[in-house]
Amino acid sequence: MSQEVRGLEPKNLWNKFADLNAVPRPSKKEERVIEFMMNFGKSLGLETIKDEVGNVIIKKPATKGMENRKTIVMQSHLDMVHQKNNDTVFDFDTQGIDMYVEDGWVRARGTTLGADNGIGVASIMAILESNEIPHPAIEALFTIDEETGMTGAKGLQGGMLEGEILLNLDTEEDDEIDIGCAGGVDVTASAEYDEEDTPEGSVGYRITVKGLNGGHSGMDIHKGLGNANKIMNRLLFDAFDNFGLQIAKIKGGSLRNAIPRESVAEVIIASTFDEAFVFDMTSIVDEIKAELHTVDPNFEVVFEKLEAAETPKKVMPSMAQYFFVRSMYTAHNGVFRMSPDFDDLVEASNNIAKVDLGEGKLVVKCLTRSSVESSKFDVANSLRSAFELMGCEVEFSGSYPGWTPNSESEILDVLVDIYEKQIGEKPNVVACHAGLECGILGTNYPDMDMISFGPTIRGAHSPVERANIASVQKYWKFLLEILTQIPEKK
């Protein structure tokens, strides 16, 4: 763990972030970080609770003179997205994140950094630990599994919290104050098929799409970033139509909330088409490079001719493949609709996140988002239709609601006033296309006044994730002032 990170200001925040990043904390495997947080709360002599799903709540009384202020809930999620470069040797289940400082940013070596939402968690820990920071009564809520289903927020029961105001510290632009977000639903298409023997006279190729930036499938979906699964299908579609290519395996993408950066396919073609196939594929790759040169300048596709012993022995039948590549082409990826009510806000989108094909089975995983519940399922049904036409079974799961903006929020007025005084300009009050937990928490706490903000983080959900040091300092000053300005109880 880099000592240079621990030396950054504010030291109390960065040291807590370094402590947190030493603990493996993948979504759905949060046992160690839950224990870490339970031990932290108890070590401070504070009331520390673990609810039935694994969320941790730590309660701290108000500092002297702040007893008459409203109780606040400070909330962040414990889990992080685990992504790494293919050439990075790293075990997320056993290793802590290897951080370093470069050009004013904190980064990780070849992996995600965990600033999403580790900076928020570390902020709350620093405030809980401090004997010098003035604040009202605090209920610190550390949720689990935000990144792969928001099951922590969904499982939090009503009555666990008494706070009237919730500060969600999971926003990634330091000039934004969020008052709403998109909901989401997981769409999974699956099918089985009977493999057939590879024809005589075939040669095998391994096709690797790589070098894409990837990113957050909500916050980055509007940027036109390359999706490795769609690019791979574009290549396979052309080669199937022109050269009779047949697919043996595809493995593309990983997590639903990450725009896929890489995809690998093993295929066969007739040896008579060998040279023409490579020439044609190279031409298409050059076209895609020209399309993506601004947003994905490092994009590339590698074609490896396989030795005879490596050439696949079984492949997907041509008719099944015909429907598969066309369904993949039809399935929407990217922005589906922009909001007519908020400038520059994506209303609905889809990320074709993961494709796994081989040995007679196919699974395609998507994450559909929308700030409007009806359009969320409109997009989901368009995907369902595309995949059912090829014979897939399609399942919707993990649906969660969006967070409806409250323009009359009392805490919003407080934050806007503080921001203007500290920065000298108005913040951007926005709704975002990411999935914040506020909407879900609001189902059991409908009267809680909620707001979300945070420091500038770039490349979340990808190995280029980084946190801006100056922005963290700006955010920390903002947060501390907010604590002193919480309204009085009525």
UniProtKB/TrEMBL annotation:
GO terms for molecular function: metal ion binding; metallodipeptidase activity. CDD domains: M20_pepD. Keywords: Cobalt, Hydrolase, Metal-binding, Metalloprotease, Protease, Zinc. One of its GO terms (biological process) is proteolysis. GO terms for cellular component: cytosol. Belongs to the peptidase M20C family. It catalyses: Hydrolysis of dipeptides, preferentially hydrophobic dipeptides including prolyl amino acids. Its cofactor is Co(2+); Zn(2+). Its EC number is 3.4.13.18. The keyword Transmembrane helix does not apply. The keyword Metal-binding applies. This is Cytosol non-specific dipeptidase. InterPro entries: Peptidase_M20 (IPR002933), Peptidase_M20_dimer (IPR011650), Peptidase_M20C (IPR001160). Residues 208-292 form the Peptidase M20 dimerisation domain.
